[in-house]
């Protein structure tokens, strides 16, 4: 095998964010940009010669070109074998599943998740370790350090692999096996959920609609929902992965999944499906809808936790639950009742890995439409959909009824997130500094009907390895348990995205079905005052409300 060692210059902007490196496609196409980052990964992880790597992506523009480059670099860096999804496709949870099942050394996943794709869109790359989960901060920091000092990368002289042909091919001395991207994952799902019960539900006339948003979950959803569970053809909409996601924005929320939302909020209630769901670019996020009804992701985690033993894979109960800090405390209430621990971690699925590996938690969830369990080490969109279908098949109630009964039993953590996207980075940083500058005076102060109990900049000490992650979001907690959190997103590629998370607890069944935005209005006003939001950003309203 002929290996080229190419002299290169380091880049100083390859710091991985919340979930890997995400940039505009144009940045990734800068000569040597992708190669440098991949070499930085290989130099940092020091895989023993002969290791196996898993490789795939969400099918977005530049996916296949990047895969060909990474294959040649893996060969030059001593890997014995790479398992790559057919057509370059592997959803994030499926990649995690394959890494674990094949005991591979790790994996590279190409995705910018829910960010738009296409030549003008975003691209991304992340490294997952042998447990199938996102690399922890100590590895991403090492990759970043390496990317800033790199002087050369290694690449094999070899022809492109045929990514459409299942089976083995060679790149230099390295074996490349093109695998069915769906099979292992579908088998895992079938082992966790009561497919017979879900089939009976669907066979009985229950109607569902799944929007794959022209992203990676199309083939997975068609195989599982239509072929294995018997949902009629056409249940999966936008099921063909496209490089530009059909010019859509594959973010499963009420704003961007508008086609599904229009179906689920149809004027004719009787013909509206009973259940709707969507997943994102790389298949790890989910949105759950009932007929004319939205399930907040924080509630979804709590409801799955409360009903977990309905699914065969979880009959033994849960070891514990973990949620990211900005996620509502609805899951904490369930954990309390079940007598199991609930952990609060920083935003980012990577923070759940140690807890799952140590057997301390079974379920994890985030307000950012992410839910998952220890079956893999990533959040998992279709898994959440199947969990809901399993619960619906067993309880035979509507989605709305399940949520209302949950609130009646546990109280409701009324919740919303307001995003202000593409703000100038300096303005966003100054706004955050301004909020923080008031922290010394806030405790004990009365703001409207609320009294401030505490405020801090969230810092997390990992209970397993003792690592500390600070600067994870500004929290203002009130005496009645309500909360405002300010945080800058770590996944955007344009300016800064400010996220304001709002949460109020309501134990009164008479009022707890109120519209979340109305119920949170007093907290929204406080958040605007504390941050001088309008004066500083000139924005009148959020870009996205979830
Ligand atoms: C990633 C992370 C999640 C995180 C989300 C939002 O999701 O894996 O853990 O909650 O980003 O992060 P931020 O608020 O920093 O934008 P994904 O689906 O984009 O990979």
Question: Which keywords apply here?
Answer:
binds 1,6-di-O-phosphono-alpha-D-glucopyranose; seven-stranded mixed beta sheet; 546 residues; 18 helices; alpha/beta; globular; seven-stranded antiparallel beta sheet
In short:
This protein is 32% helix and 25% strand. With 546 residues, it is of the alpha/beta class.
* Distinct bound molecules: 1,6-di-O-phosphono-alpha-D-glucopyranose
Distance between the amino and carboxyl termini: 52 Å
Classification by helices and strands: alpha/beta
Shape: globular
Unreliably modeled segments: none
pLDDT average, as an integer? 96
Name the strands of the widest sheet in spatial order. 2-6-5-3-4-9-8
Portion in helices: 25-40%
Compute the gyration radius: what is it? Answer: 23 Å
How many β-strand runs? 27
**How does the major sheet shape up?**
7 strands, mixed
Q: How would you portray this structure in words?
A:
The protein is of the alpha/beta class. The protein has 18 helices and 27 strands. The strands form six sheets. A seven-stranded mixed sheet has the order 2-6-5-3-4-9-8, with helices on both faces. Strands 20-21-24-25-26-19-27 form a seven-stranded antiparallel sheet. A hairpin with a 3-residue loop joins strand 17 (363-366) and strand 18. Helix 2 (33-45) packs across helix 3, helix 2 packs across helix 5 and helix 7 (195-203) packs across helix 13. The protein is globular, with a radius of gyration of 23 Å. Bound molecules: 1,6-di-O-phosphono-alpha-D-glucopyranose (G16). 1,6-di-O-phosphono-alpha-D-glucopyranose is lined by residues 18-19, 113-114, 280, 284-285, 324, 347-349, 366, 368, 370, 489-491, 499. 1,6-di-O-phosphono-alpha-D-glucopyranose binds at residues 18-19, 113-114, 280, 284-285, 324, 347-349, 366, 368, 370, 489-491, 499.
């Amino acid at each position: 095998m002929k290996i080229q060692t190419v002299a290169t210059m380091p880049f100083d902007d390859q710091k991985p964010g919340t979930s890997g490196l995400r940039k505009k496609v144009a940045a990734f196409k800068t000569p040597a940009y992708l190669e440098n980052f991949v070499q930085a990964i290989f130099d940092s992880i020091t895989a023993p010669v002969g290791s196996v790597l898993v490789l795939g992506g969400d099918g977005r523009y530049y996916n296949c070109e990047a895969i060909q480059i990474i294959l040649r670099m893996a060969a030059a860096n001593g890997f014995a074998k790479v398992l790559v999804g057919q057509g370059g496709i592997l959803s994030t949870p499926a990649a995690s599943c394959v890494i674990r099942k094949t005991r591979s050394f790790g994996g590279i996943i190409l995705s910018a998740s829910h960010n738009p794709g296409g030549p003008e869109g975003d691209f991304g790359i992340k490294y997952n370790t042998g447990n199938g989960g996102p690399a922890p901060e100590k590895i991403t920091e090492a990759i970043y350090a390496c990317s800033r000092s790199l002087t050369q990368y290694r690449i094999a002289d070899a022809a492109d692999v045929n990514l459409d042909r299942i089976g083995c091919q060679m790149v230099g001395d390295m074996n490349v096996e093109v695998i069915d991207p769906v099979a292992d994952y579908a088998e895992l799902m079938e082992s966790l959920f009561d497919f017979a019960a879900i089939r009976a539900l669907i066979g009985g006339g229950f109607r569902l609609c799944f929007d794959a948003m022209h992203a990676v979950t199309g083939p997975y959803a068609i195989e599982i929902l239509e072929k294995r569970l018997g949902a009629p053809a056409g249940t999966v909409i936008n099921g063909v992965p496209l490089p530009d996601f059909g010019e859509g924005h594959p973010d499963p929320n009420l704003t961007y999944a508008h086609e599904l939302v229009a179906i689920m909020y149809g004027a004719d209630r009787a013909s509206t499906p009973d259940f709707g769901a969507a997943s994102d670019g790389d298949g790890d996020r989910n949105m759950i809808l009932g007929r004319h009804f939205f399930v907040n992701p924080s509630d979804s985690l709590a409801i799955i936790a409360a009903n977990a033993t309905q699914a065969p894979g979880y009959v033994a109960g849960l070891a514990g639950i973990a949620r990211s800090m900005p996620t509502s405390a609805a899951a904490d209430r369930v954990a309390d009742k079940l007598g199991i621990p609930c952990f609060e971690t920083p935003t980012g699925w990577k923070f759940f890995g140690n807890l799952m590996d140590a057997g301390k938690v079974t379920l994890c969830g985030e307000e950012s439409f992410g839910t998952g369990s220890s079956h893999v080490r990533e959040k998992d969109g279709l898994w959440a959909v199947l969990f809901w279908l399993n619960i619906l098949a067993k309880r035979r109630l509507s989605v709305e009824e399940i949520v209302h009964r949950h609130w009646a039993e546990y109280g409701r953590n009324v919740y919303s997130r307001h995003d202000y996207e593409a703000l100038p980075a300096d303005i966003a940083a100054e706004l955050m500094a301004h909020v923080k500058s008031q922290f010394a005076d806030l405790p004990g102060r009365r703001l409207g009907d609320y009294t401030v109990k505490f405020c801090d900049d969230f810092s997390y000490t990992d209970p397993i390895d003792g690592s500390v992650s600070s600067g994870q979001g500004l929290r203002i907690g009130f005496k009645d348990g309500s909360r405002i959190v300010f945080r800058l997103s770590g996944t955007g590629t344009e300016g800064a995205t400010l996220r304001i998370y709002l949460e109020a607890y309501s134990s009164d069944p008479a009022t707890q079905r109120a519209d979340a935005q109305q119920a949170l209005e007093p907290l929204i006003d406080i958040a605007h005052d504390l941050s001088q939001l309008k004066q500083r950003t000139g924005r009148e309203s959020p870009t996205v409300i979830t």
